[in-house]
Write a structure and sequence with these properties.
Blueprint (H helix, E strand, L loop, with lengths): L13 E7 L4 E9 L5 E2 L2 E4 L4 H21 L5 E8 L8 H13 L4 E2 L8 H8 L24 H20 L7 E5 L3 H12 L3 E5 L3 H11 L2 E2 L12 E4 L18 E2 L12 H7 L3 E2 L2 H4 L2 H9 L5 H25 L3 H13 L4
Parallel strand pairs: 3-5, 3-6, 4-5, 7-8, 7-10, 8-9, 10-11, 11-12
Antiparallel strand pairs: 1-2, 2-5
Helix pairs in contact: 1-11, 2-3, 4-5, 4-9, 4-10, 5-6, 9-10, 10-11
Bound molecules: nicotinamide-adenine-dinucleotide (NAD).
GO molecular function, one term: oxidoreductase activity, acting on the CH-NH2 group of donors, NAD or NADP as acceptor
Family: Belongs to the Glu/Leu/Phe/Val dehydrogenases family.
Keywords: NAD, Nucleotide-binding, Oxidoreductase
Length: 351
């Protein structure tokens, strides 16, 4: 398998492969760039078809973390790890212990955290083997939620802050009476709905599971919408908080909203769709900028900080987005492209 010639290689500093025969662990750690600090990025366990697919995923994700941390003003680089296997069938304590040893073997160049298939409990097991495991003990919280290491409350607050800034920029208004359609009312989408409701927004929600929708209808007076109808609604804002690639060839022509601002990763099916959105006068909040509250939370878990410092840091997401919007407007470029340029300016220089 070629690594250096891989299309997603993009000058990665370090790519490590690990096999632990007794537990069956097969894992890859990718460290994209550590100019700003040690690499941070979650550990994903997924039933990849083969190691080539796992390598593609880990390289793409670790690069994304370099951009995310740079835009969140963190002294961190980008990295990611993947475990090849079905988390429901193949995960074991021995495997998580082995993964902890693998992370430790990089000597602090890479810190891991949660991602799909890996929960706080798994990280706690890994943490018995290494001090480079994060996301296990949130110390600070601004929202009276139990600080259990889950960063979703901080992600939701960051998305709320960014959505508010985007509405101020595009619609020149606060959130009172603004119509927001949320796709996916899970950990982040539900909390985002709560913040928006408290600030007077009118909500439309959808999910493939009815429980979350019913909760939002009862608690926030949201209107329930069928999943396939969400993108064509006559609303001001669409907040994708479900899966990636929700802005695609099918949904893009239907969008009437003037702002897209949500938590999901990789919202644009193709990078070129950012330019299409710009030409249609739709303001797009680059996903990795607006959803950085989680990584900011994890950063603060690792240092002597305070709930107030965490909150202030998350609120910078709104300022960063406004900087992107102003530059995109003056350079006549798409917001996703401008975000990449600013991130590269930041991480291409050593801290
Ligand atoms: P979650 O799984 O708790 O919630 C996602 C919700 O979307 C679920 O309720 C699911 O049923 C729903 N959903 C899935 N497909 C759908 C569809 N086609 N139509 C409507 N609803 C659908 O996940 P989460 O933690 O709330 O994260 C939401 C998104 O934000 C994900 O894309 C995630 O990668 C991203 N994100 C999350 C965090 C975090 O801290 N949790 C941080 C950064 C980015």
């Amino acid at each position: 398998m070629s690594v250096f010639e891989h299309p997603e290689f993009d000058s990665h500093e370090h790519v490590a492969f690990y096999h632990d025969k007794p537990s069956g662990l097969k894992a890859i750690i990718a460290v994209h760039n550590t100019n700003l600090g040690p690499a941070l990025g979650g550990c994903r366990m997924w039933p990849y078809i083969d190691s080539q697919e796992a390598l593609t995923d880990v390289l793409r994700l670790s690069k994304g973390m370099t951009y995310k941390s740079a835009m969140a003003n963190l002294k961190l680089g980008g990295g990611k790890s993947v475990i090849i296997g079905d988390p429901r069938k193949q995960k074991s304590e021995d495997m998580m212990l082995a993964m902890g040893r693998f992370v430790d073997s990089l000597g602090g160049k890479y810190f891991t955290a949660e991602d799909s298939g890996i929960a706080v409990g798994d990280l706690k097991t890994m943490a018995t083997q290494s001090k480079y495991i994060t996301g296990v003990s949130a110390q600070y919280h601004y929202n009276n939620e139990t600080p259990d290491g889950n960063p979703a409350p901080s992600t939701a607050y960051g998305v709320f802050t960014g959505l508010k800034a985007s509405v101020e920029y595009a619609l020149k208004t606060d959130l009172k009476g603004v119509r927001v359609a949320i796709q996916g009312v899970g950990h982040v989408g539900y909390r985002l709905a709560k913040h928006l409701h408290e600030h007077g927004a009118e909500l439309f929600v959808t999910d493939i599971f009815p429980e979350g929708v019913e909760r939002a209808v009862q608690e926030f007076g949201a209107q329930a919408v069928a999943p396939e109808k969400l993108y064509s609604l006559d609303v001001d804002v669409i907040a994708p908080c479900a899966l990636g690639a929700s802005i695609n060839d099918e949904t893009l022509p239907e969008i009437k909203a003037k702002v897209i601002a949500g938590a999901a990763n990789n919202q644009l099916a193709k990078e070129t769709m950012g330019e299409v959105l710009r030409q249609r006068g739709i303001l797009y909040a680059p996903d990795y900028v607006i959803n950085a509250g989680g990584v900011i939370d994890i950063y603060h878990q690792r240092m002597t900080s305070s709930s107030e410092a965490l909150r202030t840091h998350i609120e910078q997401i709104g300022d960063t987005l406004k900087e992107i919007y102003q530059r995109a407007e003056s350079d006549e470029k798409a917001t996703n492209i401008v975000a990449n340029v600013i991130a590269e300016e930041r991480f291409n220089h050593k801290a």
